[in-house]
Amino acid sequence: MLSKKIPIAVCFLFGLFGLVQYFSPHPAAVSAYSTVLDWVQIIFAFTLLVGVVSLLQIQLKHVSRKEKYWGYSIVTIVGILVMAVFGFAGGTERGTAFMWVFDNMQVPMQSTVFAMLAFFVATAAYRGFRLRNVEAGILLAAAIIIMLGRIPIGEMISARIPETAEWILNVPSMSAKRAVLIGIGLGSITTALRVILGIERSYLGRN
Amino acid sequence: MDLSRIDRRYIYLVIAIAIAVPLLLKVQLPVSVGPEVQKVYDEIDSLQSRDCVMISFDFEASSVAEIKPVAEAVIRHAFEKNLRIVGLALFSEGTAIGYNIISSLAEEYGKKYGEDYIYLGFRPQYVSAILGMGENIDQVYPLDYLNDDWKDFPPFSDVENYHDISLVVSIADGSLPTYWVEYAGSRYGQKIAAGITAVMATSYYPYTASGQLVGIIGGLKGAAEYENLLGYTGGGHRGMLAQSSGHLAIIALVILANVAALRKKR
């Protein structure tokens, strides 16, 4: 029972502290608040370590059992270890081995994956943007205006295009976005209150 | 041939040509400045010499091609205005990239580390880092990226918290500017601007309309607009033709698909 009661009590106390200190300029509250923020960063740094260890354990298990695609696990393990050795031994400044690998391997590889998005967007647009009804037509027209409005050629065709694109972003798009943001805000407050009051307990796990 | 069900590899080929070929050409397209970029420019331009701006590199390596011209434009403006820059990163991958960008531009402008700029490096858990800097930056970053006590640099020894920062510019490819707004803006009244990828721009319009963000520089187009204001041609302008032809190719493909579907229906 204590394994549940203690986390709920800790959560309640810190949640309440976070709420109260926001309205208190008292030096004691400010000092305690700074200390808690330090704790958060320290705890988070440890979770990073836990993440790395956990990732290594899982990948080592894949290799030892020669599971499907175990070769990729070796790449992951080597990548983690090599970067850690380079970083700790030679530092992470310009001109170091760490930065060479980062600039010449990680950046191009990640940029490549991100760049592939353009191809997927193009095929998705080709297959999905169909003029099936009025709503789809409005969506299609808005998409074309925005795409034209975000490039200089749009303005070369007509000065109205970027103006209309700006209007779409500033009026209909923003209204929808604001509704979503307000919904998220209310949802966040509700969830926070549920966690503080011990109603929401999913973070404790199943048992 | 049923064009509405064309092999996707043809679409890939069209997009590849539409983007790659213009990158090889040296054609400059005229770019006019939009209101959002103008607001960021005006805000930085209104600062006094030696005012302090904080530039946070909140992006991952994947978006460097798009976000680097944005960062360069802002840093160039800050150096030209002789502002002091405090650089940092709240995404680990942005740390080294940010340092490289800021230090290479510093060399170009003859700016010195510790006098004109410092780089604090990365801190995990961005919410507590942003909140913590509102109380005391030194507590969140006791040492800088180069492991020096940055408080020993006289031009930066008076920088304690957001009160001493005139503007925060978050160069981001995700939702970090939202956290800057929520925690540094709402709680500490810090002015914030955002340099973001184009795909994220729509998410931030409500924040600029409400005044929570000073303005936004959205993707390559935003970078090109800022370059226009600064009077130079950089990565933003170089990418404009490729971006234009890419957009036009997608529009043409969408129209083609709809015409083909319509013909098939008949």
End-to-end CA span of chain A: 10 Å
> How are the strands of the largest sheet of chain B arranged?
3-2-1-4-5-6
Average pLDDT, all residues of chain B: 92
List the helices and strands of chain B in order: HHEHEHEHHEHEHEHH
Protein chain pair with the most extensive contact, residues per chain: A-B, 55 and 66 residues
Q: Characterize the biggest β-sheet of chain A.
A: none
* Shape field of chain A: extended
What is the helix fraction of residues of chain B, given as a range?
40-55%
The secondary-structure class of chain A comes to mainly alpha
The low-confidence runs of chain A, each spanning 5 or more residues with pLDDT under 50, are none
Topology pattern of chain A, helix = H, strand = E: HHHHHHHH
Could you give the distance between the termini of chain B? Answer: 15 Å
Short account of what is shown:
The complex is a heterodimer of chains A (207) and B (266). Chain A has 207 residues and is mostly helical.
